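Protein Record: Sequence and Backbone Structure Tokens
======================================================

Structure line: whole-number tokens from a learned vocabulary of local backbone shapes, matched to residues.

Purpose: to set a sequence beside its fold so the mapping can be learned.

___
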Amino acid sequence: MIRVRKQSDKQNDCFIVILPRQPDRLILSTMMPETLTPIISSRKKEIVKQYIEVLDQHIADLKAGKVERALEIREFAGLLHVHPAHLSTTIKEVTGQSSCSHYEERLLRISKELLISTTLPISQIAIQLTYDPSNFTKFFKHFTGITPKKFRDQHK
């Protein structure tokens, strides 16, 4: 069993990590807070894995036009039987990215695929991905630096 104890003095905080080496001996290690790596449980990793699987399926359904609206974090959490706040913090802790970042990354990838591989009007792609066309353009430009039309023109 690993034990961590915080010890403070006037200049800085440090953590003392007590690692069992043998049943009768212990190793003491002093670490600064920024070097202390959190231990991530296998349950948290499993929650993130399940979230990514459900998210990827939802994005595929959006791309195929099978769903009419985007799921919210509380709906993903409901599907995984966890609290929305727990899901959000677990995703951030395990991956270093927010749940929104994962969603936006995949949505952007699908947007690019649809712009390149179809001749659908940009407004139709926006609606298919559950965006208002003007908001879709803002979203796309925010992440790529160019509008969907310019992107499509560059990849003809």
Remarks:
- Confidence is low (pLDDT under 50) at residues 22-31.
- The chain has two domains: 3-35, 42-154.
- Residues 125 and 131 are 8 Å apart (CA to CA).
- DSSP finds seven helices and three strands in the chain.
